[in-house]
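Annex B, item 7. Sequence and structure tokens for protein A, then protein B.
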Amino acid sequence: DGKAKARSNGDSIDAPELKGGTGVGEIGIRMQPGSDERLTLDIGLQGYTGQRDGWSGGAMMRYKF
């Protein structure tokens, strides 16, 4: 049935609910500025909608020696 029970210091903790749904979308781009193939830039964005709304993003720069 997926029910959870927990206690902390003798007190019960509310069980998590998994009602509703959440949609997730992601878009990203990888760039190599100029003709230098050793440098790479990655940028990404994720969006969430439904039971949970929000967004997150990230960036990474990589240089190969």
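Protein B:
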Amino acid sequence: ADLLAALFGFTALKLASLARPRLLRDDSGVVWTRGLAAVFFLAAMLSKESGSMLLVVWLVWTALRREWRKLVFWGMIAIPVVGTVLFLRLHAMHEPAPRFTAPAVPWDRPALMLKAIGEYARLTLAPVDLHMERTLGAAAFNGRSVLGLLAVGALLFWAGRVRPARALLTAALLAYLPISNLFALNAHVAEHWLYVPLAFLLGAMAVTLAETHMPAKARIPVSLVVSIWIVCLGARTFVRNFDWRDQRTFVASTIQAGGESARMQMALANLKMQEGDLTGARSSAERALELAPGHPFGWLRLASIAILEGKFKEARALLDQLESETFFASDRLIDLAAIAHAEDPDKYLPLLEQAAALSPRNWSVRKRHILALVAAGESEAAERRLEEVVRLQPYRAESWILMGTLLEAEGRLDLARRAFAEAELRDVRWKSPRFPQGGPGGAPTPSN
């Protein structure tokens, strides 16, 4: 997402800067180029919200050049572009994302911003410990704060001494603001957030070097240092790229590199559950709760492990703690249904029915309920529920495959073929009619 936002955003900036009568042959060329720039600005915003700052950069640059008529024009272009993004964004978000930690209070934000600048500066110069899940610590003033102060001072000195670099440094600042901890985000520092601001910063470095009248003797060592730095960065990228080989490698390497967090340990617990290593899964889940005591995801993960171990009393006690957490209501009911399947089968289907009713757009939950109905011999009820799903979310191939399979089993071949044809339209890789992996029947699994 960050790379796409950069690709489209920088392309838009280039097109917008080219849309001048003296650079193009006629006015129609200017109009077409500006229109294409607007499309690329829209694509940048649709890639990621931070892509909107590239349009802000262009508006600020236009204002700094005092091109007021052009600023009015681009302001009018910005209205439908931003309006389109907001319309799509608001319609896509059916439920607000849950927040499990309180955001920093306003008077703590300056210190947080300073530490974040220090951490980003360190990562830019020496990215020796790349990993997710960075925290800035509770100390009000520490080594990161000192580095942040030095970085801010260096940038101010730079902007004051090298006039041609000011526009790019201003753009870097504007692109950095959304991730500066001025606003509450789901993390204090994330390496990938820095891509776009850093691109402007490196551009300012290039302009500065081009403008600096450096003695011939000094150019060789400077070029050598920069070349070594670039080669080292490339080698670092090459080595760490293998972390993305599979999910297990990624999570393990994140923890090993210093990115241990409750989220990473819960992800590791989930992977160990899938591998059948329940002892290791329990150890990771308990470690996650040590790092984030009382975290609802930790309770839910541990409850799922306890169910697979047959420790239903422990699982029920953990699930009771989630009773007031509305965000986890469906997952909690699924786990209770898994317990009921072993202890009181009559309660199994009603609990899944409640879970499906609470999450009508959650295909994972709806599929569990539908497959359970099929396994219980209630094919007609399963078809009705599946019809509700494909009406609400017709874009999912898997639901059409399941519909076709049910219809085929009943001998309604014409309707089955239509359902399979719909599945092929949604997923060109799918060719043969079969149940999704896991199919109907068998003992239910916990929510995680």
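Comment on protein B: Confidence is low (pLDDT under 50) at residues 435-443.
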